[in-house]
């Protein structure tokens, strides 16, 4: 079985998907999807790339929108993990 490879939306590095966190957009919020069960368009990033992703608006690019997306739920999730 080939290992699924995904690209981080911030640094663009290709990676075994288990190294990346899946996030989904629900409404205007970006939510973590740790067990890959949430519906919606997904994006993948390194947990350590969150700040870069936020700064570069990688989430807007990944979800193809110009709207402001709230990354607060994701930020809270990552902070609690530290
Ligand atoms: Zn990255």
UniProtKB/TrEMBL annotation:
<protein>
    <submittedName>
        <fullName>Unannotated protein</fullName>
    </submittedName>
</protein>
<dbReference type="InterPro" id="IPR035931">
    <property type="entry name" value="YlxR-like_sf"/>
</dbReference>
<dbReference type="InterPro" id="IPR007393">
    <property type="entry name" value="YlxR_dom"/>
</dbReference>
<dbReference type="InterPro" id="IPR037465">
    <property type="entry name" value="YlxR"/>
</dbReference>
<feature type="domain" description="YlxR">
    <location>
        <begin position="6"/>
        <end position="66"/>
    </location>
</feature>
<dbReference type="Pfam" id="PF04296">
    <property type="entry name" value="YlxR"/>
</dbReference>
């Amino acid at each position: 079985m080939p290992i699924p490879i995904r690209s981080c939306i911030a640094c663009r590095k290709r990676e075994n998907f288990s190294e990346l966190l899946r996030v989904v957009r629900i409404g205007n919020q970006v939510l973590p999807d740790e067990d890959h069960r949430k519906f919606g368009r997904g994006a993948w990033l390194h947990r350590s790339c969150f700040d870069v992703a936020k700064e570069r608006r990688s989430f807007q690019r990944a979800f193809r929108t110009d709207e402001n997306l709230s990354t607060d739920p994701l930020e809270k999730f990552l902070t609690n993990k530290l």
